[in-house]
Structure prediction request, 763 residues.
Amino acid sequence: MTIIHNLGFPRIGAGRELKFALESYWKGESSRAALETQGAVLRQRHWQQQAGLDLVPVGDFSFYDQVLDMSFTLGHLPERVRGFHGDALDNYFRVARGRSAASTDEHHGCCGGVAAGEMTKWFDTNYHYIVPEFDAGTVFALDASRLLGQLAEARREGVKAKPVIIGPVTYLALGKTRDDSDKLALLPALLDVYAQLLETLAAQGVEWVQVDEPLLVTELDQDWQHAFNFAYHQLKACRVKLLVASYFGPLQENRYLAANLPVAGLHVDATHGQEDILSLLNLLPDHKVLSLGVINGRNIWKTDLNAVLDWLEPVAARLGGQLWLAPSCSLLHVPVDLEGEQKLDADIRSWLAFALQKLDELQVLAEALRGGRTAVREALAANAAALAARRASPRVTNPAVQAAVAAIDAGLGARRSSHGVRSAAQAALLQLPAYPTTTIGSFPQTAEIRQARSAFRAGTLAHADYNAAMRAEIARSVREQEALGLDVLVHGEAERNDMVEYFGEQLEGYAFSQSGWVQSYGSRCVKPPILFGDISRPRAMTVEWIAYAQSLTAKPMKGMLTGPVTILNWSFVRDDQPRALSCRQLALAIRAEVLDLERAGVRVIQIDEAALREGLPLRRSEWKACLDWAVDAFRIAANGVRDETQIHTHMCYAEFNDIIAAIAAMDADVITIETSRSNMELLDAFDDFKYPNEIGPGVYDIHSPNIPSQEQIVGLMRKAAERIPAGRLWVNPDCGLKTRQWAEVLPALGNMVAAARTLRAGL
Ligand code: GLN
Ligand code: ZN
Prediction:
């Protein structure tokens, strides 16, 4: 009998109940007991929704982050928060979110201020975890209370519980050392605590424990391979059965290592082609359970169940009771339930599966394996019909777009002249001073803007009135920028809810869910638009707004667009064509917009690629191929303009060193980047040889309400000028200002403009 199970369930709640409970608790508007109750309600509901499974994950629920949960379980907290008084859950939030020294809670006197834990992306997903911090003196001490509590709760509910923990090797790999010591030296001590944890679970009568080791799908050097062998040999004696779970990609060269770890079971992501799986079968010891992740836990599409059965049936015949089935990874990365979606187009809806629908699919597969396909004839037929309808739908396929993509040639992505020639033409046209000042695009999204937008969406504000309100905001931001004396202005993005959704809504080939929320970190969720068909641009998207803004000033107004790679990376994308192809279609749509802006007299156009780096594969050996098509897409979007039209791009991540050649190949005239927190050291990556064009290193951190002084900015720019010739430098903030208040923005930009004047005087 094939066992079916799940690796993890979205914990935020179909109605984002956890988000609202957390935020209300943090604001002091509700009690800790109310928050704990909401957590229990969600766990109970989610277990019930998974009741059809043979094994249900327990311990996957988290009030903030599963990695931080693991740090607490391992008794391993940063020095700066150890010994805090007060409630454990409050301290947990303190580690996650930080606490200001000025906090007025009852422990402000004794427990002081604390910086928030550093966050980073969980493998190649859009989920962010809190980075464990190590040093040579790190010690661990088991605190199994959270896990045992959830386990006891699950048992009371009659749940067939399979506790889930992050594996020791992945946990170590995710953390950072503060003192350059060797993380792997901590492994033996860490394993002692894992052994105690597993023993504790065994004492509770637990049979299986899922140990997440997604590190197994990345490139491992010998030390880390050895760490895997060492770790699981050390844990071999434990009395529970371990299911080591790998996900987010195929095992590839780690197949042998994974297959031969001395554990009772292995879970693998089976959505990346069968070849990886079939060769794994030959390596797997007879006694070992193989759990195949056959339902994609990262996308929102229905699975082709018949196609899966075609290759799964022989595997099942071979493995018998040793075969388990599951989604490829935790369902944390998809929305909970399609049922709530009433506004989605019925056709598109019939092609989709969210978490609960994915578990239904799993059920159908298991029944087909147990009783033959006839046992689930109707479900399989309905699935096949939906997929056939999707394949044949004229909404998916647009021959004109396909023809345009087929006609792309190498020349399309190239500027007419080299940067040297262009920059002279641009200088003549734009007449900018040295150290030109600009901002990244957005100005504060005020309460009035939000209200106008939601009234417009609700139908209580007429289109013309909404437009008038947005124009008034644009006019305000232009006035403020002129008064500040900025050189290249922006319109402020008042009309944009979000830098991807705004474009998705205007492009053909995109659909939007009402409540397809996915947790990004803590209480923060995103609702990625759904890219379902060939992308086209029925009409200009931004030209009216930018032309209006330009009409208010003689200074150059930047056209403001989101780039194809970023739109792609922040969407749910198609599974019926390569990402690279979807990206090219997006590139053509953005290109048309760029050319329309140029035709409307816009002299500077910024194309944001905030997420360029995010889309990179987990394996470095695959980076080049990915960067090639990503850069290509940007070039197609941007480079159709005349020499005198200045193209800007903006990126807000922190590591450029290893992708600098790709960034240079994009050939934007100006790049603005987030640098202020790195004290300009980041610019080392951009030396003349590697990066010949102009650069605006961010001079202040827009995430913080602090107002930078003129001296600070001058100091940072002088540092920048040690690395980049002054003639190529721009002065700008780190990123857009939409989350700030005008009261913060005006003095900050005032100081920035004054700093630029000081720098010019000193030239
Ligand atoms: N133009 C966008 C803004 O200013 C850029 C945001 C981003 O890089 N994340 O808000
Ligand atoms: Zn940014």
